[in-house]
């Protein structure tokens, strides 16, 4: 893994470094949906990322509903567990495919962006650690639903904090990944990148 300075760290940066933004400046986000090459891989990528954003938001909303008394412990556990498992499992699988297949193909196709894929790879390691912490605090929370109200509240607060951290990391990462990858796909097309 590349030795990244603190300003590249997922929780410290506010976007991609300037030297990696030349393609997104050529293909700004507001123009993506009208581009001929948005269909196929780019569209799939954006839809998948939107699903992760939606699931992260749903989990955040669900824990808020429980903490504010709109869902009791049994209702919440029944709602929460399958959504969390789907979210964590799909996110981990998505990152594995990116790391093993797509990132190497994209970095090979455009050497000037290799540093960006190193940053995204480092993000994946941090997100994986956050996924593990999220699962641990979620399981502790679900176990605490059998305990007294104070233990439930403490465990709910711990999970809410961990979930907020994961969602914030994921939001930054997804935006940066899209800013690096979607313009590359628009510029070259799926077939030329070896992903079509």
What distinguishing features does this structure have?
196 residues, single chain, Four Helix Bundle (Hemerythrin (Met), subunit A), mainly alpha, 0% strand
Description:
This protein is mainly alpha-helical and 196 residues long. It has one domain: Four Helix Bundle (Hemerythrin (Met), subunit A) (Up-down Bundle). The protein has six helices and no strands. Helix 2 (41-67) packs antiparallel against helix 3 (73-109), helix 2 runs antiparallel to helix 5 and helix 3 packs antiparallel against helix 4.
Return residue spans where pLDDT drops below 50 for at least 5 consecutive residues.
none
Question: Rg from C-alpha positions?
Answer: 19 Å
Distance between the termini: 28 Å
Strand content: under 5%
Here the CATH topology equals: Four Helix Bundle (Hemerythrin (Met), subunit A)
Topology:
Elements: H1 22-26, H2 41-67, H3 73-109, H4 114-144, H5 149-188, H6 190-193
Helix pairs in contact: 2-3, 2-5, 3-4, 4-5
